[in-house]
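#data-curation
PF: Archiving a pair of folding outputs for the training set. Convention for this channel: one message per protein, sequence first, structure tokens after, nothing in between. First:
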Amino acid sequence: MTETTDFRVCLVTFPDRETAKMTAVKLVAEKLCACASLMPGVESIYAWQGKTEISSETLLMIKTQQNCIQAIDAKIRELHPYEVYEFISLPVIYGNADYLNWISESTT
């Protein structure tokens, strides 16, 4: 069985690019993540309050460490406009050692 590292990739969807970008800038400035990549044009289809919804969203992919996850979630809770927002943290099983070192040096 492969062990995971202490590094994480987090996924968060936003209703628009500007809100996602503002959040990414704050996360990087506060050293909660090394990098946050914006992927506009994501089409999300989901169940909400008994109906099927279709929305154009921007996906934010956050590269960080496990010890920053709770602080990232708290910051997103503070900034996110959705009542229920997506926040999923995925473990990194393997990565380029230089890149992972950069994440470690860039986060608190």
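PF: Second:
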Amino acid sequence: MEKHVTVVGVLHIVYAAFRMVLAAVLFAVLVSLGPIFKFLFRIGAVDPGEIPVDLWNILPVILFIVIVVLFVVGLLGILGGLGVMKHREWARLLVIVLSFFYLARIPLGTLLGIYSLWVLLNDETIRTFTQVPSAPVTNP
């Protein structure tokens, strides 16, 4: 089961890294949203009167919220993956919670969630994570 725990940690780090890259791309879109629309207005591709004013006001807010959520979940995934590979109980619980949320992200998130839950809820894995490391024996 040790290899499966390591694989779960690596997969969560990789999956979270992709989320953080997506957050960076969306941030670039958010920053360039104004210039993009100004260009589209200038060339006549979009008429400013066709876009509701409420959309202009709410779109940056929605994008910012999505970026923050993607970044925070990505950061938690990386921390959880690293912690799982170091056999930290808090990381096992964090990755279990993240895995439940990943189940709704068809198809890759679902596969990662099922695999992570199978590995981290296994009795052998639970015993491994809850064992208190023994102190090294020193001879006087």
